[in-house]
Amino acid sequence: MYKAQSTVSKMFKFVVLAAMLVATSLSIPTPSQAASVTCSTAACFTSALANAQPGDVITLAAGVTFTGNFVAAKNGTSSAKITIKGASSTNKPILNGGTTSSGYALYITGDYYDVRNVKITNAKKGIMLDHANNNWLEYLDVYNIGEEGVHFRDGSSNNVIKNSNVYDTGKLNPEYGEGVYVGSDVGKWGSYKKETNNNRISAVSFGPNVRAEHIDIKEGSSSTIVENCIFDGTGISGANYADSFIDVKGNNDIIRNNTGYRNGNSKIVDAFQVHERSSGWGQNAKFTGNTLYLDNATPYVVNADSGATATASNNTRSPSGNMYKGSVN
User: Fold this and answer.
1) Is 166 left (phi over 0), alpha (psi -120 to 50) or beta?
2) Whole-model pTM?
3) Which of 50, 60, 58 is nearest to 81 (CA)?
4) Disulfide check for 237: which of 23, 169, 174, 208 has CB 3.0–4.6 Å away?
């Protein structure tokens, strides 16, 4: 009986050893591990972006200026975003594009980024997103920009900008100095995907000196939400019809619980405008719970031009005066 047990034991050990040898002879890939890197130079940041993997955290040293045009092209995932964050919320690092006449300070073409506690400045366009989805931008300061501050373009959808400040845009070309720009003009649809949908602009402070509209929502885009924002109209230029806080040309957009101050700027002729820039667009905009300080009775709270449609409720203006014009129910 003892010999039989010993033989079985030896056979079992042999089988286990053989299995281990086979396993070690196979090439079994190890899953990549999320990395955490702190950068204090532009070269480090550029490298970290180029090598980013889902779940990576890139921390930018407090108060440091990173000069260049930085590209975030890798993709995170819904459960493992790529994080770009400043080390300090009170001494934010600065992404400096180098000049207001060309380039993007931060160019996002990947999905699932979380960008926070960073300043964006001195570029032709501050943050550009092309075919970039499910990105989160928060606690940003975007300023001293040649044209638009932040642009969701080329199908970029399901993105959020929140708890941020956008001011001093349009330094190079006031007519293109929007604070946040959603989508593309119909004349650009051959170059950029028009369906730039379900983006949210929340608790963003705009102005002073956003030279074009604070927010321009283009035809071809749908379901943009603008909520809890503050609009300081000082500096809106009137160039290229920049004469309102928000210009709505998409469909099914919601503008709610915002506060706007005209601040004596005669270039602002209405708080919000709705336009049918292309047939079938500029439809079903909803304005609710907004508070407007418009200096006098003349500017409308919502002006929907021919072909555009909107609904409005629970909006207030001070002083009392014109509320709605056009097809506004």
Assistant:
1) beta
2) 0.90
3) 58
4) 174
